Amino acid sequence: AQSVSQHNHHVILSEAASLELGCNYSYGGTVNLFWYVQYPGQHLQLLLKYFSGDPLVKGIKGFEAEFIKSKFSFNLRKPSVQWSDTAEYFCAVNTGANNLFFGTGTRLTVIP
Amino acid sequence: SAVISQKPSRDICQRGTSLTIQCQVDSQVTMMFWYRQQPGQSLTLIATANQGSEATYESGFVIDKFPISRPNLTFSTLTVSNMSPEDSSIYLCSVDRREGSYEQYFGPGTRLTVT
């Protein structure tokens, strides 16, 4: 069965620090990859996505993610985090059907 | 984008009772999805609901426990039946950004606590 692993459960950073959140999935076929973010008190919203093409994708608010097929990974990065990036981040994988498989989420706390 | 609302936003229910959660979308959509997020765990798809047909349930979820209605293209309900404390979760509905896009918009969720 497909699975998505997010190894960092809670990350605490100071403002301006660089961020990298890990995401690995287990599925041997073609995948569509997503990062969703949930800010405190708000809905889940899409941060960025990868379907095909350039494996380095850019999303909103300065986030980017790199798809490394050989490592089954889709790590999220941001060079300099802000206090407003405090949120929970979910990696998700779609394998062509209409559902999404989610990781358990990583809670990011940015200290001003 | 799609604006999705859910009712109720939260509820505390007694064991053995049932709760119906409503999901309303501000535009017509073909597919609606219901997810569960148990404490400390990831979102898990319960079922996919197409208007005019029976919902398709994922492994581990059955219609008797989670009956779903989809009477039109903007509305769906999920009922959690004969609840037990293990059903305490956040229940979310979502819709495809556009048909076949695999991008989903999510509602705010319904936080259910079963005592």
- Determine Rg of chain B (CA atoms, Å): 13 Å
What is the overall shape of chain B?
A: globular
> Helicity of chain B, in percent?
under 10%
Mean pLDDT over the full residue set of chain B: 92
Provide tags for this entry.
heterodimer; A: 112 residues; six-stranded mixed sheet; four-stranded antiparallel sheet; 12 strands; 0% helix; B: 115 residues
How would you summarize this macromolecular structure in one to three sentences?
Chain A has no helices and 12 strands. Chain A is mostly beta strands and 112 residues long.
Set down the secondary structure blueprint.
The complex is a heterodimer of chains A (112) and B (115).
Chain A (H helix, E strand, L loop, with lengths): L2 E3 L4 E5 L4 E3 L2 E3 L5 E7 L5 E7 L5 E3 L5 E5 L4 E6 L8 E8 L6 E2 L3 E6 L1
Parallel strand pairs in A: 2-12
Antiparallel strand pairs in A: 1-4, 3-9, 5-6, 5-10, 7-8, 8-9, 10-11, 10-12
Chain B lengths: L3 E4 L2 E4 L5 E7 L5 E7 L5 E8 L5 E2 L10 E5 L2 E6 L8 E8 L7 E3 L3 E5 L1
Would you mind describing this structure in some detail?
The complex is a heterodimer of chains A (112) and B (115). With 112 residues, chain A is an all-beta fold. Chain A is 0% helix and 52% strand. Chain A is built from no helices and 12 strands. In chain A, strands 2, 5, 6, 10, 11 and 12 form a 6-stranded mixed sheet that branches. A 4-stranded antiparallel sheet of chain A has the order 3-9-8-7, with no helix packed on it. The N and C termini of chain A lie far apart (41 Å). The model of chain A has no long low-confidence stretch (mean pLDDT 93). In chain B, strand 9 and strand 10 form a beta hairpin. With 115 residues, chain B is mainly β. In chain B, strands 2, 4, 5, 6, 9, 10 and 11 form a 7-stranded mixed sheet that branches. In chain B, strands 1-3-8-7 form a 4-stranded antiparallel sheet, with no helix packed on it. Helix content of chain B is 0%, strand content 51%. Chain B starts with a strand and ends with a strand. Chain B is globular, with a radius of gyration of 13 Å. Chains A and B meet through strand 5, strand 6 and strand 10 of A and strand 5, strand 9 and strand 10 of B.
